[in-house]
UniProtKB/TrEMBL annotation, chains B, C:
The gene is scoA. GO terms for molecular function: CoA-transferase activity. It comes from Compostibacillus humi. The keyword Transferase applies. PANTHER family: KETOACID-COENZYME A TRANSFERASE, SUCCINYL-COA:3-KETOACID COENZYME A TRANSFERASE SUBUNIT B-RELATED. Gene3D superfamilies: Glutaconate Coenzyme A-transferase. This is Putative succinyl-CoA:3-ketoacid coenzyme A transferase subunit A. It holds the Pfam family CoA_trans. Keywords: Transferase.
Length: 215, 230, 230, 215
């Protein structure tokens, strides 16, 4: 499957997890594709640089580079949008007022612990709002390709990359499957490709259960 | 029209070698380009800059880095400026990486007379190493100290002659908290209006926080800031 | 028109005996009179109320006190209600006295995911007794914990149908921080307008914080709230 | 001297201490009289319930009980006024952004330590913003009658009433005198009545210097 096709598949499936009226923060990468697949569902997008009610990319003539997303792209405002400063934005995030944060990950462990900001041995120079979201969001969905570019699995038994904090992901959506996390570990809840369970197990780095039994 | 308005070149008298500067902006929005341009000509040394990111290569704060004015940068995201990464790897720039929300809150505390606070953010991570950790309600929290600056360089949309400020959409970002947390606060603005033209409900930064106003050299054309004279 | 709008009598399902209520208002401004009136008829017991003051004698929160609903009050100024002083002196009401700024900040922390903070306010005074004290930059600071509520009862001027709020002048006071710090937030409003009528710059409390809206029974005549039917 | 006359005298003298452009918070009692005696001087009054730029009492027809002072009286707004919530108001106060706080006191000690919220043996049930102002204001002026109603001096060697915090008053203005405080103690800087130094000493509870010498 072509990468962009896989990314869209993931975005579509994550969109199904969102409900009308949800306050949602979308991270960079795959999550930014989600708004295109919400259909009639109306969610409120929060942008950590100070906006609730983010709308789509404006026409060229309506661009204002002081109205941008956290990814630094020009955006518009939905009716009912509100503006605030960075400290108030993180009151919203850290204080547990974001219903769903959708983010990418470098790794997720079998209990949902997330590594999404630093690779060992590489320069650690960017964290942005990732750790605040991990600590504060009510629900965390990881939207990620099943494997990293080098073929190593994203879902792992134990993180080898630096953790993003004590907050846990609730759901992982990849191009092959939807997993749910709990204190008991990982549960496969849905298959999204024609891989057999055996094949899926092959490319996944952590044990998981399916319909009550360990795969 | 207002005794807070100064010439941009007066900046040389207000900033000293070794100062800690709080500089507004997220990406290149709400960034005091004019003040940074002037600062880059002053040859100041050993500055510590607190800002979400260090601009981009040769844009915004990237210029100061390029000129070798910086000793240290405190922020949440430096990866957008390759030069910052390079200078850090060469040992020419100290970097203190702080989660974005923690950064905003530390600066707010600096302006609010609060010495420090406990947050769940970053507990158990590399960014909490060496910091006090403490349990509250069964969860680990990290202790974070307030950040204060010598001079804040902020960017607003409009000021009135008293120095009240409003910001353009998400150009607000870190500017309002930075306006509270330095001994000297200099606001670059696109426009200065008469007192009474800004509604009491709109004013985001009350004039008490603003010491000086500088008119921006940059004009927005087609929604994008255009370098003066270009 | 909006699924957040409820009948004032639905309050009975949202508040339980023993709850901690954060109640907006400074003096009688920005006070949710209608919500308090309804609450006074519900016979709830052992409530803890967090509010700057307990209204005045038989006005605002004074009514709840009179009805014996309160176990404890946390606030900065109770002297304006003689009944509060009397009930406290008889042992019928616990009172936790908190400096006004510390009260506002503790509630803000409750809503902001911050467990506690250090402030110079009240260091060395009777109000710091039994609290952790710590030196920062050579000055003694007191450690203060966040305050969270079960239900916030707040008062705004206008809501839009999404639940975004704006406040009337100084009727803002404690309401915006209280809107962030409870599991359930109920806003009494004078008026509900269509989405889009409130400017993104004016909105003080974004709709994310507001669970329910109740229309106020009180009308302002000659600038003063008039008891319904009087 | 009649009490109201004395109060006005104190208010007038405190007004002289204020400068054009000062950000000033006025406490209850005598301080509220000050705006009437500022003449051409333009100061910005901060009200801790959420306003910078407090104006005078409005005409009856313009009263809005949601535009009130910290003393809960109807007020107006000066041009350039701004509104904010209680937490932001105390960022301003606690954070050291108020140039001058003028407040009453039950007692002030010889180094300027203030007691202005509680009397021993009486119910301690109100503090309001007093301690925040004592901790945060850049300069504190105490505006007070020289003696309490029972004749005991307000200026004392050592507080017997509970302290309002570690912040110190800079100046005390009474109907008889202006005192300045420092780590060295109290200095009489100006006499405001025809009491002799000896008489002033008589009704003052702390030692003070005058023109370099202990009185």
């Amino acid at each position: 499957m072509l990468s962009q096709e896989a990314r869209i598949k993931i975005a579509k499936r994550v969109a199904e997890e969102l409900s009308d009226g949800d306050i949602v923060n979308l991270g960079v990468g795959i999550p930014t594709l989600i708004p295109d697949y919400l259909g009639d569902k109306k969610v409120h997008l929060q942008s950590e640089n100070g906006l609730l009610g983010m709308g789509p990319t404006p026409d060229e003539k309506d661009i204002n580079m002081d109205l941008i997303s956290a990814s630094k792209h020009p955006i518009s405002m939905e009716p009912g949008a509100s503006l605030f400063d960075s400290s108030d934005s993180f009151v919203m995030i850290r204080g547990g007022h974001i219903d769903v944060a959708v983010m990418g990950a470098l790794q997720v462990d079998q209990y949902g612990e997330i590594a999404n900001w630093a690779i060992p041995g590489k320069n650690i120079l960017g964290v942005g709002g990732a750790m605040d979201l991990v600590a504060g969001a009510k629900k965390i969905i990881i939207a990620s390709m099943h494997q990293a570019k080098d073929g190593t699995p994203k879902l792992v038994e134990k993180l080898t990359f630096p953790t993003s904090g004590n907050g846990r992901a609730n759901i992982l959506v990849t191009e092959h499957a939807v997993f749910k996390f709990s204190d008991q570990g990982t549960e496969l809840v849905e298959q999204l490709s024609d891989l057999s369970l055996e094949q899926l197990k092959e490319i996944t780095g952590a044990p998981f259960t399916y319909q009550g039994a360990l795969v | 029209m207002t005794d807070k308005l100064i010439n941009k070149n007066d900046l040389s008298k207000l900033i000293n070698d070794g100062d800690t500067l709080l500089v507004g902006g997220f990406g290149l929005s709400g960034t005091p380009f004019t003040l940074i341009d002037v600062l880059a000509t002053l040859g100041k040394k050993n500055l510590t800059v607190v800002s979400n990111n260090l601009g981009e290569k040769d844009k915004g704060l990237g210029i100061l880095l390029h000129k070798g004015c910086l000793k240290k940068a405190i922020g949440s995201y430096f990866t957008s400026n390759r030069d910052a990464v390079y200078e850090w790897s060469k040992g020419n720039l100290e970097i203190e990486l702080v989660p974005q929300g923690t950064l905003a809150e530390r600066i707010r505390c600096g302006g609010a007379g609060i010495a420090g606070f406990y947050t769940k953010t970053a507990a158990g991570t590399k960014l909490a190493e060496g910091k006090e950790e403490r349990e509250f309600d069964g969860e680990t929290h990290v202790f974070e100290r307030a950040i204060k600056g010598d001079v804040s360089l902020i960017k607003a949309w409009k000021a009135d002659t008293l120095g009240n400020l409003i910001y353009d959409h998400t150009g607000r970002n870190f500017n309002p908290v930075m306006a509270t947390a330095s001994k000297i606060v200099i606001a670059e603005v696109d426009e200065i209006v008469e007192v009474g033209e800004l509604s009491p409900y709109e004013i985001t930064t009350p004039h008490v926080y603003v010491d000086y106003l500088v008119l921006s050299d940059y004009k927005k054309i087609g929604g994008k800031y255009v370098v003066p004279g270009s």
